[in-house]
């Protein structure tokens, strides 16, 4: 809130003398007009606006050149027309990263003032388009949200222009004459609200500058943008001002705590104990296990300074803890009597990747558990690795309702120095790419060391697997709120007493459900319609909505709506607890069954090389008879990327990558079976050993 | 284990040709001789040794000059004599930090080879004393533990000397003739073991070079060293090669998880939700709340490089998360409808202190929870702060059996920008110093923000409060093992069947106790005597030992021994579960009662300034009628440090510090009461407002 004060002083420096007006937060132009109508002391006439940020299609080598459009709220800001005017190709709405990283703002807060936040090196690339209708504005009061949608400032066209001139380094400012597609562009205060036509036009426009509660892009049409919207609008995640880092909000952290609870109990029964090793690693220790650390070296973050003191030796932040822990293992294991040694830690690790970050799936800091154990024999070590793999499979399947395939990694893909790397392989149907979590055994001089890790990427996989165009779909077992209870069916004709009866019934149902361990909540907020509440909880993926109205109560029942299927059904108040519990179990099972069907449909047995790339290109994984030779895997990678060159990647950021082996599944196909000495590898023609699962992967 | 291989190649470079011999790990010279007697292919004669590291008393401004003594195992290495020889004052055994930081070794692993690990800048300050008896050694085989006590190398006197010459930069090497206080210094292999006299002499010597299971220093005599020994020998904590960082081992992490479980349930019922914010903070955000961050600035760790890429802007690691979170609070709180906002996170934070680190109490990275909430009104905020304070008090008192005093901080001591800082004040009787955890309310423009944190320092306080000269004393509620069951009373005359009956009885008792939720474990290890097992679990502080022998079984009972009081009592097998559960509750209560008595005895009501400093010097806290003025607090600090100048600080590292106010206790003394307008502040004579607790503090 104190940012507003900072802004005020910043604005006065730029010649703005009025302080921002505070009002109810708004989500669209209609609400904005309405909110302003309740505030006293406003100008008699003012003009509402929208600020949009676009991104053109550009070669990766070029610095990004975003386009900021400042327009009247009802101007027809056609992205093709703007692109033509600026000679830029394929303008699309910029994603949240751009808003956060470059403009230090976020959806719902975008305004011309965000230009002042752009760094000197970036501002030269920014193009600004100003609507001539604003420059010709006759009200003298152009309205912008200064920082949040709960505040408004009013400025004159002249002030707007002087502000744009005052932004240091900003050179590309273009004026455009948008054909207004509504009758009036000025909202006179006397009218109280803009015309219905203007409001409808604004609502149908995909306005990046106005925060929206719902999801406005389809999962099938623009998957990356859908994923971002689902995460942020469900309040699972917030973008952060250090690139590649994200805030894990309570809704997502709850999922992580459910995973922790399940896994912690599981490994405790295996005799694994929790501990905590420091996050810092001396360079000497980090470099001790060169082989192991090689892959991480370019991604290690180094602390070189404390306060204003340069450290004598830079200190690394752990990318993983093998090198941190093993010297102490050597100390603690003085004879076979000290074996097995089994420890685990819950912590965050840092891998400063320069590739495009993606929430949960590729982040510079992430939460995980890492288990590290030492055994006397390979047999014991492998038993443990498979026990842990089973826990991982159960987390995916039983908690997150995400099907996986168990197996081992090929020689090329296994961990450095390991005898065996086991894996559970998931699959994102929307992109056709695989995703994995693994455990491995590494034999050492006298002991067999195992390590295994599972991270918050599981949450990303869950969202991608189940989410739909309405938002998140949460599996009941990990949903913070399993049942949301909404009072319905109350109209102006109902009395206060009627309302009270319905509220009490909601609270009563909530209490009954909570008493049997169901995480139920009532949404008794005023000033929101049932429809707004439905949307609110749909975006957040709550598995069951219970609607209670006077008519339901007359019938001694409530109405239930499933989030996963949208199926509605009445449920009797009598025995409600067990009905709801059963429904939660049913939803959990149905979600897994549905996801498994999608998975199974996308895993194709491929017996001819010709079919291999087309199968991948149809966003499927391929199960092929394979020779298991590393050289052959390299060839497959090369041939599948070359062969697919004509192919359109599924999102701008994905390279047209070749396929790699995901795993050698424990459960092998039997139709046709591999006949040793007869079945050939489909790529090289050598004898095939087993079926291997190949695909593109995260 | 692979370190041994590295060592072998290092040693061969120095002219050592034999590889180390591996044997059972040993804890003293008697075991060493015995272990070697079982290894074949050894030299016919060899000499056992000890390597000791001392530290003289020096001005803080001087570089530390440790003394490494290499001697025959039974030479009388009198520290006074060595000090006289080297003209150094008050030699004491170096603590674990020195072993870890300077010599990169640890107790049980110290040998002359550790000299090769000392950095160039430090080696010039190291003084080495070599026992002439070794230089005159006639066996040609002087035995050292190369890295761990499970390995031995044999070198000649000439090789030892050439090694010392080969250590680059080592200039101070002195020969000394220790009067051997045992008959023979050479262990002939034919003898199988050294003479009893030699073994006894070695055992009574405090040998830093030999790892010991028990605690060999008294809590009253050398508290800092006692604290280190208890932590490391109980396996709670391991020293780490980055100074100021420590490994929290399972025994200690279990305590933390118990605290987490209790506190998490507590704050959940207050409506607080868990989340996770990134550990990285941009410099811009860090500096935004200048007031708040000022105190932390010199301790902030900065990441400036990733892999080999210099970052454009250095990025800080959070020292706390207020500055990280508040910009997002401003975004999420768009109107009063979004209040209260209550979040908490479990994470680690980094404060790169340059003061002397101390495990759990002052570490550069530590685990904690930090709660940050925003409320519409001060009243709501303060209710929450007190609710959380109650949870903190309950963690200290109910879980850790550590008494505390609740109160508020004085204006001088409260958090920057806060209206009120509440606190629970603990007290370390052994040092007479206070220790605190706090919560605070900070009013902002439109909201009241609260923050509150509790860290792993709680574990250090628990250890300091309850530990004794036998080691850790764990409060039952947080003890990973609450009951250890040890088979006893079996002698050579007992049959295998007798042994089996006793083992089965142990396992049966274990199973019965576990069935009712008691964390019981049987210690059925062979090759250890009951006495060794008793020591093992005593050091680790297990609250109840259950001894089961043939005679106990005849009487249908078991013998119990309490760790806190050492009281032994038989308990009937019938109804054992409830007897043990009751005993655990009794121990938990008794520990708190005992600690509270110590606490109360040490909190003195002081009504005359003359008594103030003497009370502090007798390791007490003082409750004084006080005016509550900041200027007076400054005067108290000055006068109490100046007045106490003649005073010996309780450990070398503690400055002779002045007293500060710890809190204004919620529960005020009533005898005598403060009479407003009459009772005067004992320092300045102004009117006293309340009693305030003053003391020296961690």
Automatic annotation (TrEMBL), chains A, B:
Any single GO BP term: prolyl-tRNA aminoacylation
Pfam families the record matches: HGTP_anticodon, ProRS-C_1, tRNA-synt_2b, tRNA_edit
Domain of life (superkingdom): Eukaryota
UniProt enzyme class: ligase
Catalytic activity: tRNA(Pro) + L-proline + ATP = L-prolyl-tRNA(Pro) + AMP + diphosphate
InterPro entries given in the database record: aa-tRNA-synt_IIb (IPR002314), aa-tRNA-synth_II (IPR006195), aa-tRNA-synth_II/BPL/LPL (IPR045864), Anticodon-bd (IPR004154), Anticodon-bd_dom_sf (IPR036621), Pro-tRNA-ligase_IIa (IPR002316), Pro-tRNA-ligase_IIa_arc-type (IPR004499), Pro-tRNA_ligase_II_C (IPR016061)
Positions of region (Disordered): 638-671
GO terms, molecular function: aminoacyl-tRNA deacylase activity; ATP binding; proline-tRNA ligase activity
EC number: 6.1.1.15
Start and end residues of each Aminoacyl-transfer RNA synthetases class-II family profile domain: 255-548
Family under the similarity heading: Belongs to the class-II aminoacyl-tRNA synthetase family.
Protein name: proline--tRNA ligase
Organism: Coemansia pectinata
Lineage: Eukaryota, Fungi, Fungi incertae sedis, Zoopagomycota, Kickxellomycotina
